[in-house]
Specification:
Layout (H helix, E strand, L loop, with lengths): L4 E5 L12 H9 L6 E6 L10 E3 L7 H17 L9 H13 L5 E6 L2 H14 L2 E6 L17 H12 L2 E4 L2 H10 L7 E3 L21 E6 L9 H12 L8 E8 L2 H13 L5 E5 L4 H10 L2 E5 L13 H5 L6 E4 L5 H9 L3 E4 L5 H13 L9 H6 L2 H13 L18
Parallel strand pairs: 1-2, 1-4, 2-3, 4-5, 5-6, 6-7, 8-9, 8-11, 9-10, 11-12, 12-13
Helix pairs in contact: 2-3, 3-4, 7-8, 7-12
């Protein structure tokens, strides 16, 4: 029997500088070290070619792929609630089928979002019966950012089809896995957890704490939906008005894109902040520059909030933040995975909740900022638990079908996964 092989279906993939490209990139990099030959089919055909990475649509797609893509484009535009990249699906399926015909692929691993990736996996599973691993980087039917009402249960029906058809379901938090085991008890045995993590082979800049100047607080990443800094800005405004905080003593950096729905929720606060205290770039920057901005700040700001007021996910930026050796000020939900991880990570942190009173938020912010500059290093358990190469050892077993069953665990109230 030949070496097991997997085709990773990932709409985003490096060199794209977005968070969604990181997890499939780790899979692609480390699965071969655990005996799994890996290929990728992705989007953005204008990006540079890379070995074992196929980008579609190709310059001259088949007539059938073009026709199906056009049909899906109109369906998505007029009949569906979201732009889920469905016109990309026929092109990805065509590329996958060519690899299957050449005997290069015996398992499909699709990583969501967008919905298009799981649509490819579902299509290939139902048509060819190929082994299918469905990886969820975010919730689907219960996603707090997918809140549009529609005339039928689009997300719910699609999610159920995935759980019925996939051979393996991978969640990236224990909370998501526990919820799905309750909702889909018939699929409980094929639901596994592989947390997000970091690439141990990817160098990350570290810098000693700065000696002088204003205290620099940095949020690096996209602001969207309920993830915006209004609560923090309101606290700063109150503390400044009360004479408890000197605006010249700190600088807030909001580095990264800001989607219009988020900007509308805090634009008035930005306008009221003292001149020069807040920088909001409003656009993405190269990854190496973003890493430098994170590493050179004094305190990292984490915004883990959404419209539904609860969280079962961990912001992927946590694992970059952790490598900066800086304290973290976090706005999150009580008992969230982020809070549970931070509580056992050894990282100097403070978690505040949207439901907290303004007085408690102000007290927490003032005390945390008042502690000044200090290093903060995660403990050995953190580095072991979220090492991307170690996580791929489990994934390799799931892909090949030789992995040991994962016994369902209750959602933990403290601690981090082993």
């Amino acid at each position: 029997m030949g070496q097991p092989s997997v085709l990773i279906v990932a709409h985003a993939f490096p060199p794209e500088n977005i968070t969604g490209a990181l997890r499939p990139a780790r899979f692609f990099k480390y699965l071969p070290r655990h005996g799994i030959a890996a290929r990728v089919v992705s989007a953005k055909p204008d990006l540079a070619a890379a070995e074992r990475v196929t980008r579609v649509p190709v310059s001259n797609p088949s007539l059938g792929a073009r026709a199906r893509a056009e049909l899906l484009r109109w369906t998505e535009r007029f009949l569906l609630p979201y732009k889920d990249e469905l016109p990309w699906v026929p092109h990805a399926v065509a590329a996958a089928e060519k690899m299957m015909e050449r005997g290069e692929v015996d398992t499909i691993l699709s990583t969501f979002p967008p919905v298009a990736t799981h649509a490819v996996g579902l299509w290939l599973k139902r048509k060819h019966g190929i082994r299918w691993v469905a990886d969820f980087r975010d919730p689907f039917a219960t996603n707090p950012f997918r809140t549009r009402k529609w005339f039928f249960d689009y997300d719910g029906r699609f999610e159920r089809a995935i759980f019925e058809s996939a051979d393996v379901i991978v969640a990236n938090t224990d909370g998501a896995a526990a919820y799905w085991r309750d909702v889909y008890p018939e699929a409980a045995g094929k639901i596994h957890v592989i947390w997000n993590g970091f690439d141990p082979g990817h160098p990350f800049p570290t810098q000693p704490a700065r000696a002088g100047g204003p205290l620099v607080i940095s949020h690096t990443g996209t602001l969207y939906g309920g993830r915006h800094p209004r609560l923090f800005l309101e606290s700063l405004e109150r503390l400044i008005a009360a004479g408890k905080l000197d605006p010249a003593s700190l600088r807030l950096e909001l580095v990264g894109p800001v989607e219009p729905d988020a900007k509308a929720r805090f634009a008035d606060m930005l306008a009221r902040m003292p001149a020069g205290m807040v920088e909001c770039t409003g656009k993405g920057i190269p990854q190496n520059e973003a890493n430098q901005r994170m590493a050179s700040c004094d305190i990292l700001l984490m915004l883990d909030m959404n419209e539904r007021g609860h969280s079962v996910q961990v912001p992927a930026k946590l694992f970059d933040y952790a490598r900066c050796d800086r304290p973290m000020l976090s706005f999150t939900s009580p008992g969230s995975p982020l809070e549970r991880i931070l509580s056992s990570s050894g990282i100097d942190h403070l978690c505040l909740y949207p439901a907290d009173s303004p007085e408690r938020i102000d007290q927490g912010v003032l005390g945390f900022l008042g502690s000044g500059r200090r290093p903060s290093r995660a403990n050995a358990s953190f580095w072991q638990a979220f090492d991307g190469e170690r996580q791929c050892a489990l994934l390799a077993g799931l892909i090949s079908g030789s992995g040991s069953p994962v016994v369902p665990e209750p959602v933990r109230t403290s601690g981090i996964p082993a």
